[in-house]
Structures are given as structure tokens and as C-alpha cells.
Amino acid sequence: MKKLIYLAMLWSSLLLGGAALAGNHPLTKVVFDKTSGTSYIDQVVHIDWDIDNPPSLMIDDVSTPLNRAYITSIMQIASDLLYTMTEGRMRLGKISVYSNAYLDQADMQILNKSGRPNAHIDGLDGAGLRNQNFTQPFGEPANVTYIGKTVAHEFGHYILGLFDEYREVGKFDTSNPSAPQDRDTPRETIMNSQMEYSRLSIAADYADVTKRQTAHYRWFGQSAWETLVADPATDLPHTKAWKNRTWFDSFKGMTLPAKLAVPVDANKARASLQITFMKNAPKVAYVFDLNVTQAELDGFIKAATASINLMPAGTVASSLTFSGDNFVEIGTVTLGAGADDPMRQAARDSFLSHKATPGSGFAGLNKALRRAAAMVSPLAAAQDNATKLGLPAPLTTSVEIGATPVIELFTTTASTALPETLTALVSGAVMLNAEMLNKGNGGNMETLASATRGSPAIASSAAELEKKVLHHLHAAIGDGMPNIASQKFESFAAGAKLEMKFLVASKAIDGKVVLEALVGPNVGMSLELKTPAGVTVNESNAASLGITYKNNSAEQSLSYYIPTTFPGRAGSWTATLSAVNASVAPVELEAETDSKLSVQVAIIGGTKADPRPPMITATVQQPVSVKKASVTVDIYDATGALVKAGIVLNDDGLGMDLRPGDGVYSASLEGILTKSGDYDVEVHVSNGGGTAAYGTGGALSAGVNAPDILIGENFYREENLDFAFFSNSVAAQVTDAVLSGGGCTLGRGAPFDPLFPLLVAGAGLYLLKRKRLAALGNEAQTRH
Amino acid sequence: MPKIAKSLAKLMVLLAGLFSSCWVAAQGDYLVWSESGVWAPGRPDRLRQFYFHQDGNGQFVETLNEKVVRIADLSHDNFFKSLPLDQLFDLNDSYEPPKVAGLVVEGRGNKVALIASWSGRTKFINADANLLPPLMAGLRQKMTEPSTRAAGGFVSVKLLPPVFKLNPTELAQLPMLSDATVEQFAELRDAFAAPFKFIAIADERWRLVQSQLKQDGQGLYVRTTQGGVVKLQFYP
Hints:
CATH topology of the largest domain in chain B: Mago nashi protein
Number of strands of chain A: 35
Helix content of chain A: 10-25%
Number of helices of chain B: 9
Helix content of chain B: 25-40%
Oligomer: heterodimer
CATH class of the largest domain in chain B: Alpha Beta
Strand content of chain A: 25-35%
Number of strands of chain B: 12
CATH architecture of the domain at 2-12 and 280-477 in chain A: 3-Layer(aba) Sandwich
Shape of chain A: globular
CATH superfamily of the largest domain in chain B: Mago nashi
Largest sheet of chain B: 7 strands, mixed
CATH topology of the domain at 2-12 and 280-477 in chain A: Rossmann fold
């Protein structure tokens, strides 16, 4: 039952929290109204508290709850200022606010803590880029006016791509021209002080050659308005080192303002503002491809069934199938609480009734996806109706989306969607997660999933796909069940004994430990453990020793659950998987623990979108940072061949490492990865040297660090990450050719991605994959 | 011009430079500890500075928005001599988070700048207050702040760290601080003799300095006759 609950958390985390590997959120959009020349900016906001049970802060000597009114006021003020600073050419539109969800996918984070507001330059269309704000900026609770105006200042960076125009006293470092310095000559603009000014700089502000020292002018060589109006192609070459600046339709062809009107009109500024506090339960459409073998379809059903069992109450779940030219809408239920809920049972039963049905072509797939989009997204439904009636597409704010629209598609890599299907999904703000069996390179579901900010998964068998789906969930939750160790055996002979040793720490570090053998379709397998004291544990004596054994035939796994109360638990254990027969499929042993001490692995750079040399980071936390641990990584290529072992990751603040002692260990992979392709990194974390300690160092905010606490015992963690490395040379050869000539201001906000037909027309899987990888920002799925 | 004449001319320039730079070179050994508090546009900008000279004299200053609010002389006896200067010179130049490409972080955190001049060498260290190496953290604990209030104006010569580099065009635009100007103002001579130390100067005298340099403002970046750049900072 606990595992069910755990899996429920994982699944809901995937759907509600969004897969960490996805780009930004499907609800983020820029919609240009040609009639008025105004752009509506739809933003996704993450807040790190429960909006239904909001905490309070003493703000201006008044206890102020951080409730819906608080968020609404911030957004209104931000929209007012965005409208004013852009001379009425931009205002906020649909604002989707998530409580404790979609942290990494949100455009805007409002965190209930102290910190320095920050934003990525021109980050609106970038995976993992953000506009980050705090309820207590610079250490003090601030009122909604301050925060709202600061959010607008950060929009100057995040949306418009502008730099600061203030002076930072005492900063003499000239090596970063786009950062304020001591010698700067501040301008009277919002990019200087948002509390005093509400306009952007114009050419006249920089007429005096002796007063041109600002971060913005140093970078662009012109004022903010000159920058916005100019074609980014004419920007100074060095400005393109980060990413190409977005040229918004609202500023194209505009006469450069010599004098600003600085319009202040709350009615107009808030005319399109629609703030939605998102429900925790999503709307999910399960779409099954029946044009597979029954065994493969059973794999799809198994994964979907596991998820439907575990979805949060209130989830609206729909089911559709397709094959060839046809699709069938099975029905929709709203899930109640508990596994025995009759609606859940109805959903499960509907899945089980699916039968493999041969078909040719993908007309049914396209119809099913567009119908599914309309079922989960009222916006997609409204747009579908408008299309049918020949009417213009409705604005995103014409209907409210209160629950995250998600399509879970179970299909093959051969599946191909039409451009209008992509349009329906993207413009309808629908996230597509494509779970695919590998059936060749002809399809475009990866592209479709990435364009909708969903996640693609590809597996060679139904069993592997099911595993990958579950592993996605492990990656998504982050603080669930960290891996202690894992080992995969590709093949084995009859009578083989497959061993894996794993270290269990005391209950202060490791909670309940689960040793699981994923045996797949192999039969005649048995699993034994040997305790640190040398006692053999098997299915017969496990219960008497206080260890739970489980043979889960549905999941094709054998498991032991070792509680923290097991005497003499800390130490080295051995798991032995015995095989009566020779293998028919790979098997895997995994040791996991219910622990807060976890490792998160990420790759930065190495993509077309981010062409910096690749760097790996491993964040070790509990949740405070864990310092001075031993962290190494082994890298394997797509064939499983070892590329390099024992690369040491450091947390010393030197070289590639950001800050010393912050628990984020880093190493450059420059020169190690030379060829584009898929790689697997396996990160090992331990405390063999006994130096690891819990610490609080490395935070940007002010304050005195608490003393480190020595952990004092060894522990082990292992984490894997699949990722695709994209070498610059290949990027230049392939992607540039495809990307040149694009005219879409912002792919995600545009009704149709101009790249899509090119890709569909036969650019081939290679191009498709590159596109996906660029969109994903190389944050590929974690697997165990 | 004959070669010999060129050489002589160069020698003259060099000697003149050496002579005129006496007010820069005659500084002695010192250590400056400067703390800048958390700051953002529109918020107060506070700085605390300790200055310790090898001769046992020192100074504590606190400024708020570039105005002196506290200043006091310090007598530190053997404090300077007890400093682990050789170890300080072995530290990194920076204990700050590296820049993250494309990310703009507003304002400033708690920052520490340490400048040490010792045996003809100068060391600049910039650090985030929560990233101080143990040697610097330990050093700070030995410094105590007096509570004296301030009055009057002050000038301070700030030497600029190696990370401060201007391109030739920017450099050429800076005013030249002539030897004659320095000679004319005893306050400037004193300030150059003890860089970073706050030297009393009357408002009208500062205005005269501004007038000679054809500049306005409290902080003036100027070229010296040695070819370097310093910042003259006036604190009302």
C-alpha cells in the first residue's frame, strides 16, 4: 500500500509538477493582437506555499496573509508597469499560478523567503530560465507594490532582454560589461529604479557621451527603446553569445519614440489580466495506439493502469484509442479518493477492454490527439470550434484553464502528426507526454512532445517502456526514494547467480530500504539477501526476521523491504538473484531507500540552444547541502561502452564549480565528450573518507551560516542520467540550416511552429532529435 | 630627433614620473577591510571600513549613501604586525559566486573587500560575506567598531583592483590628475600617502579639486601621471 501511495506521489508529481526534463510550460504564451498592436503575455507562476493555507508575513507592520489577493495585487501592479514601460504595447494575459508545483517550468517564481530578485535575460522561451522573486527581497518582507514593480523590472530582463541602468557602488570589476559598476551613470528609467521610474530609456537618455556608462548601453550600444525596435540581426555580435534576442511583433516596424507618453491606465493595463489559481488535479487524456501487438498494448495498459490507480482525487481522466484512420472516444470520469473508488475502477476496466487492432496511416492518431486536446483544454475546444466555424482563433484569455491539460499518449516512434495537430496542442496549451515503443525513425512524436513542453520516452519493449515511465516518475519527484545502488545484467546463463552489494547507513540517513529485482519476462528467478552479519534472507525466512518479501507478478519484480528496526542493519548487504533458466531479457537489481539524502544530476551546456562546453553537476542534499562528500561519475556511450570512469566532481567553488560548500558538485566534460550522441552518466556519492557534513554555506542571501554537522558514517548514493550531447560542429552543420529563415517571433507563443512542416517533410529523425534536444536543453530523463 | 636625444627625453619622462609618483608610492604597509551591506536600487547603501597601518595607527569609517556617519581613529598597537600577511597573499582574489551566463541578479549581497599592501606588493580580495575563507573570517573577529559620530567632509583615494580594466578610449576620456594639483592640495597628498584612508577636506576645497579637474560628482576616476587610474571619492 505504501508503495502504491509512493507511486501515486510519483505519478501525480510527473503530471502536476511536470517532468524535470520538459521545457517551460505549455500555458506560457505571447499572443500578438494585430488590431491593437498589443501583445498579451501569458505567464506561469510558481509559489512555494499552499495558497489555500497561506502563511502570513509582517509587512509594513501589518500581518499579511500571502493569499490570492496578495498574488493578484502583485500581478496587477506588474501588468500596470509592463503596460506603461512598453508604451501600451504589452500587458499581462493569462496568469496560471501553481502552488508547490512546476517550479522549474514556471516563468516566474515567487518564493516565500529572503533572496535577491533575479532573471535570465530574454528567458521567456528558454527551458529552465526564469524570473525569480521573493516575498522578502534583500532580507525584509516587502509590500505588494515593491514586489509587483520588481517583477516588472525583471520582465525588462526576462521578456524584453534588457540590462540594468543603475549604479552599483563599490563594484570595480569591469570584466562583466553587462553588470552594473561603480563608475556607472544611472538613467532615470525602470531598469535603474522601478520604485521611482516607469519608463525605458530612449536615445536622448544617452545623448551625452560622458553619461553612457550603464550595463545596458555597454552591452547593446544603444538605449532600451532603440534595442526593442531594432531587428536583433543588427545587434552587436557579442550580444549573441547568450542567445538570440526575441523581436516582438509589437515592436516591429515601430517608429522609434523620441519622446515617451508613459501611459498610466490601470483599466487598459489590466484589461486582459486573467489570474487562475490552478487545481492540483489535472485533466488527463489517455490515448492508446491499438496498431501494436497485444503484448505491447498490454504494456501500455499496465503503465496507464498503474497511473490511474494513483492519480489524485479530482483528476478528470479520459480515454481514447486509435488505429489507422479511426479513433474511438471511450469516455471520461472524474476520479474519487482511494484505490477502490468506482470511477477509478471504471477507468481501469476501460483500459483492459482495449484490443490490438491493425491499421495503416495516422489519420486516427491525429484525430484522437485533436479530440483529446479539446477534452482536456477548454481553450483547445474553443479554438477547435472557431476553426470549424471559420472564425479567428480566440484569445487565450477567452476561456479559463483551471487544471493542467495533459495527454498521455502510448504509441510507437513511427507515429506521425500533422502540423495542424501540433497547432491544436500548442495553441490549446496542452502538454503531450509521448510514451513510445521504438519502431523506427519515421515519426515525429518526440518533436510534438517537446513542442508542447511534454516529455518523450522511447523503449525497445513494452516492459522497458513501463519501467521507463516509472523511472520518469522517480526523476520527477526528486525527494522520493533515492538510489543506493543498481546493477543491470544484460544476459545470463541457466544457473547463474547475479550479485550486487549495497551499503545501508543507519536510520539517521537511510530509512526503509527496498531491494528490488526487475526480472521482466524471465521465469525461474529467485532473490536472496545476505545481511552485514552474514545471515541469509530468503522468501521463506524473511517474515520471521522482520523483513517483508513480495513477488509482484504484475510488475514482474521481486522485492525485500528492510525496515529501520532490523537489528544490525547498517553495513554491507549482498543481493543474489538466482536464475534457473537462461535469460530472455535483461534484469536489474536496485536498492533504494526512503531518505531525504538525495542526489540530483544535471547536464548544463552541450546543446545547440546552450552551446557552452558540457558541465555535469550533482546536487547532494538532505535537504541542507551535504559538503565534502566523495562524488565521481562514470560515462557510458549509447552502446554501453565506458567512455571515462572516475571523473571527480568538486564542490570547491573553483573552476566550473559555482560556490564552495553548497552541496553542488561540478566537473567539466569538455574534451571528454567529443562526438554527438546519447550518453549515460552514472554518479556515485559516498562518504568513505568520513569528511561529509551537513552545511548551510553557499546561499546567496545574507546571514551567518550555521556550523557544519559531521555526518560521521559512510553512505552511498547512485544516480543515472541519460542525455544527448550535441557538439558544436554538428549543430552548425545541421540545425543552422534548418533554423535559418524562420520568421516566428516565439515558437511557443505562435500559433504554429514554422519548423514543423520542414521537419515533417523529411528532415529525418536526426534533425527531429536535434530539435528535441535543443528544446529540452539537454535535461534528459533520469533513470535508475 | 637623434637617438641619444630620444633616449634622454625618455629618461627625463621616466625620472619625472618617478619623482611625481612619490605621492603615490610613499604609502607604507597597510590593510583595509571593507564591508558593503546588502543593497538594491532605492535602498540605503552602507559601508564599513577598517584601515590599519603598519605604524600602529588606524581608522574606522562607516558611510551611508556615500556620506560619512561614523569615523574614528584606531590605535591597534601590534595588530598589523600580527597579521598573517604571507597567508593572506596566498588566498584567492575572489570568493564570490561565478557569473552565470545570461542571469541578472539584482543589487548586491553582503560583500567584503580586503586590500593589503605589504613589502611592495598589493593584494585585492573580493568575497561574499558568507563565503569568506576561514583566515578572513578569523581576521574579522579581531576588529571592533568604535561608536564615534562623524562631522565634516573627507576624501579617500581608492586604488583599483586588477579586475578593473578600461579600454583605451575610456582611458583617454578620464581626466588627468596632475602633479601640480596634488601638490596644491595637502589633503590629496595625505590621501595618496594613505590610500583608502579617509582624509578630512573642506567642501570648498573639494569643489576646487573638481574645478581643476573639470568634473562634478563625489566619485572621480582620474588618471595619474604614472599611467594608472585611481578613484577620488569625496564623502560629505
